[in-house]
Amino acid sequence: MTASDGGPYVNGRTGTTESSTLSLDDGDIHVCQDGPRDAPALLLIHGSASSTRSWDQLVPLLAGSHRVIRIDLLGHGRSAKPADRSYALSDQARRAGTVLDRLGVEHAVVVGHSSGGVVATALAEERPDLVTALALVNTGPGLNAFIAPQSDPVGLSQWPPTDEQIRAFASTGFSRAGYRVPPELLDEVRCMTLHTLTATMEATRRFLEQQALPERLTAVGKPLLVIFGEDDRRWRSSSAADYRAVPGAAVELLPGLGHSPILEDPPRTATPLLAFTTLHAVRAD
C-alpha cells in the first residue's frame, strides 16, 4: 500500500481522508478511507465515468459512525486504466473484494450509485461472506428501465470529448437543467480512456442483459435498501418498484431529486441510508 501522489492529496491524506493505492495483480486500485477504523465498514462504489469524488459530500455524514471505504474502480479516477485487462462486472467485483481483504475487512455494507449498484450486486454474488447488506442509489433494475438518450452525448467518435460534450453527458445525471456539475467530476471523464469508458458501459449492459437485478438480489438473499431520486433522467424512477419483488426490500423515493441524490441533496440521501446501515452493519472485532 502506498500513498497517492499529486492533486489535493498530501502524504496520503486530504482533510481526515486517508488516501492510498493498492497494487493488485491486474492493476493498481485507489482507495480512500474515513472514520474510525474499528467502526462498522461501509464500502461506497461509484458509477460509470465517475470516481471516489462523487461521494465527497456524503462521506462526512457517514464517517461519524462508520469506517467509510471508497474505491476507484479499475479504469476510473486514480486507479490504473489498462487496455489489456477485463472490465467485466465479476472482475470489478473481485477487485473490490480483494481491496476489503487487504484492508482486513471481514464484513461490510456495500452501497452503489448508478452502475456502481450493479458492481455491488456482483460483489454480493461473488462474496456473500463479505457483504452483509446492500444499498442501491438510482440503480436501474434492468435495461427496460433505461431512458435512452436522443443522441450520443459523449461523442464517442472522438476522444477526448470537448467540455461541451462532457457537460451534455453529465447533465442527465441531475434533476434539473442548469445544475452546476462539480468541475472535478467532469475531470474524471477526461482522465478516462475511450477503451475504459466503453468497456465499462458495455460490461454493465451485458450483466443486466443476463439477468435483472431483482432476480439476482432475490437469490443473494441480503437485506436491501433502494434509494431513488424521483426525477431521474437516466432510469425510470417508477422502475424502483421492481425491487419490491426482493423479499424484505425497502424502497425510498426522493421527490425533487434526480439521478445523483448523493450530490444534489446529501442530507436527504444520508437519512435512510444511515438508518439502514446502522441496522445491518457489523462492527470490527
Overall description:
- With 285 residues, this protein is α/β, with parallel strands linked by helices.
- Helix content is 32%, strand content 19%.
- Strands 1, 2, 3, 4, 5, 6, 7, 8, 9 and 10 form a 10-stranded mixed β-sheet that branches.
- A hairpin with a 2-residue loop joins strand 3 (17-24) and strand 4 (27-34).
- Helix 2 crosses helix 3 (115-126) and helix 3 packs parallel to helix 7.
- It is globular.
Short account of what is shown:
The protein has helices at 59-62, 89-102, 115-126, 163-171, 183-190, 194-210, 213-220, 261-264, 266-280; strands at residues 2-3, 13-14, 17-24, 27-34, 41-45, 67-71, 108-113, 131-137, 224-229, 250-254.
Helix content: 25-40%
Low-confidence stretches: 1-15
Quick one: how many beta strands?
10
Structural class: alpha/beta
How many strands, what sense, and barrel or not for the largest sheet? 10 strands, mixed
CATH superfamily: Alpha/Beta hydrolase fold, catalytic domain
Mean pLDDT: 90
- Shape from CA axes? globular
The percent range for strand residues is 15-25%
CATH architecture: 3-Layer(aba) Sandwich
Head-to-tail CA distance between termini: 22 Å
| Structural domain tally | 1
Count helical runs: 9
> From N to C, what is the helix and strand string?
EEEEEHEHEHEHHHHEEHH
CATH fold topology:
Rossmann fold
CATH class: Alpha Beta
Radius of gyration: 17 Å
